[in-house]
Amino acid sequence: MKNDLPIERPRTVDVAAIEHSINALWLEAASGGDEAFVRASILNLVVVTDARDRTAVSEVVAELTVTHPCRAIIVLADSESSESGIVAEVSAQCHLSLGKRKQVCSEVVVLTSRGSSVSESHGVVAALVNSDLPTCLWWRTTAPPDGHLFDELAETCHHITLDSRMFIRSPGVASLQALQGRTGHQSVGDLSWGRLNPWRAALAALYDVAAYRPHLDHLGLISIECDLSTSEPLLLAGWLASRLGLKRRPGPVTSLNPRFELTFGDRVADMTFKQVDSDEPMAGVSLLSGSAGYLSFAVRLQVEHLESYVVSGAETKAVGSVHVARRSEAELMAEELDLLDRDLAYDEALPIALSLAGDLPKFGL
Amino acid sequence: MKGLRPSRREMMMDRTEVTSNPLRYGVRDVQRMPEPCTVVLFGASGDLAKRKLVPALYALWGRQLLPQGFSVVGFSRSAMSDDEYRAAMRRAVEEFGETIEVHEAEWESFAKGLFYNPGAAGDSAAFEKLTHLLEKLDAERGTGGNRLYYLSTPPSLYEPILDQISRFGLHTSEKGWRRVVLEKPFGRDLASARALNAKLALNFDEDRIFRVDHFLGKETVQNIMVFRFANGIFEPVWNHRYIDHIQITAAESAGIGTRAGYYEEAGALRDMIQNHVLQVMALVAMDPPVSLESDDVRDEKVRVMRAIRPIAHQEVNEVAVRGQYGPGFIGGREVPGYRQESGVNPESAVETYAAIRLVVDNWRWAGVNFYLRSGKRLPKRVAEVAIQFKRVPHLLFGSLAANRIEPNQLILRIQPDEGITLRFGAKMPDVKGGSGTRIRQVNMDFQYGAAFSVQSPEAYERLLHDAMLGDSTLFARRDMVENAWELLQPILDIWAGDRPDFHSYESGSWGPEAADHLIERDGYRWRRP
Lengths: 365, 529
Known about the structure:
The complex is a heterodimer of chains A (365) and B (529). Chain A has 365 residues and is α/β, with parallel strands linked by helices. Chain A is built from 10 helices and 17 strands. In chain A, strands 1, 2, 3, 4, 5, 6, 7, 8 and 9 form a 9-stranded mixed sheet that branches. In chain A, strands 11-12-13-10-14-15-16-17 form an 8-stranded mixed sheet, with helices on one face. In chain A, α2 crosses α9. Chain B has 16 helices and 17 strands. In chain B, α2 (47-62) packs across α3 (82-96).
């Protein structure tokens, strides 16, 4: 992490005088040296994370400020601490703007909050956000998105980002369900949903071909090979179901592997999940058309490429290949910050994903 | 364009897309996907294709913005097989795709859609082969009869190519769409522009003709509309009551390089003013369109052109100045004059600098002068719009000698250093006491590089994608092109005469003195960007 400019080195300040300290930081930068600084901010980014993740989150924020200059307020929550209190540090993250010699700098405030003070950190945060700019709350902690701190912070923000991977297969899933119901003026984003975008694009591309499009109306089987400890497979399933108007048909568990029956009118389709050993949450998706003229469409992950296939009888035809480098947390979050808006496709997919998650224990998962 | 309400067409497109492919809805960054099609690239081995078009197509492929089955057929005189063409295009992408990384498997899947058909522009046998190839691609790659004919050739080849397209019925089909894309210059004067448009109209409806002005593909030029119409505070002052005059500059520090053959037939007025600069002027001067439908936007731009006061032949010398760069220094390096450049006639009378004063006769702009200038071998490369507001009606602070109260300026910087600057007066702190009110001009800056620290997409990526989508908003319409020629024709007529007044300027200077006189006569000075 780059911290070689004087203003990039964190300095501890009085919590009651954080704003004053930030201004002093800029005055100091302006008065000394030959560097030209531009103080830039297009949003407030409030990050709540576990105290032990300080280094990781600082690096992510540093990377984010390159594309999204902001006032970043990082709350390092140490609820287990026997002490209480909030310690504040201020610094800047600077980088050279494109093609220029100026340093474009974002402000970073780190609030280390201990014990009972964690739940009261929102007051300090509220005083620091620039109310003229949109505020994004990134709930980057294993603590479920509920409770006093979350509720208070959420009230002041426009967009909430979390990673459903952390909760969907845990008791925290109830918080996700509650979050879905409560969002008023805020929108909710999910890094796991962002990870799925290349898969959704590849699957959608299969049916852009006019000749293949009718097969989407006659799906008989949707098969997902995946790691079911993550949320991506369930979100993808929810997306497919919501986009195709498929609803779950309640019924008893009849198979060892997760298998769900979906209906649309008089159409019935099966959705199956196959647990595979993989470093990635998703390994492949197959969509089998049940119409006359058996045709199967598949997208598989092959060494950083999503390969698309159309299978007709014994013939498999590769129809596309897209490079999909694993995206860093910062890249996923940067995409969220570009949007800062409701994603209706996600809003539709999540309830179905949560419903599927709720039933997975019936299959011993 | 972000921030503006979607047009009725866009909303209908969304509904259509949902109906036709429900999986496409909500896929990030890929809201609009063209139908599978074949791009026939005439001039496939030429500079434009290698430097801009194929890298742009590969970039679109990599960003999943092109459909499965997308195909390219390169057409040019060079003898090449499909594989040789693919290899050549890969080299081109690697050399000229500045921000593009070539991934092996991704390139392989893109290259599967690249084909080559050798032939000259008027070669019927080659076009017959092309016809069969295109039909084969429809069958094998599912391109559905959709074809985009991109004429990236010298303008002299447009006619033979269009004739062959017509001869083989390639311009029409019961299945799929047929579109044609041309690069500027669209003619070299009013008569030739009308003839070219008439030729095009024989075989293509206007909504199938895409005239490229790559300035319109630039993010910062598109931002002019967003700036004006997504913010409520500017429109009330965007008129003759508050604006004094407007300067539009498109300056280059480069000379003509190896383009003497083209430039000797063109000159600055044809090369830059007739298209790029007048397009920017239209965006600045237009009224808000009723929607973002391409014709609604272009209607407003054409209305500006029609409102510009015609220039009579006898007025040309009063309102237009031309010049030609002589030897000088650029960036500390000595450079030759235009007439010493390779391929240039030593007696050439082609202008490398042009400046004109225009007046828009409508309610919004009555009395506001528009000063347009463009030139080569100027001190720096810059394109900007400088809006000079009127002075305050009463100078409260003017009695103090230390004050220099200047009218406000709004600068829209197109390139480089993309951004917007508002210049206004601010009170200086009275640190010594007793100094009274001292005012200095300060800048409030928005810089693209600071706020959006990402590389903007190449203009050609946007333009190619839009052409495939059938969205002609960023392309020049027939009437706009002809109106622009009609406006400038008197200047072309006079300048083509017997070597009238001709001004040279030193390379590295801001143009001929006569250009300074043009604007100083009205009490103004050219901005030094």
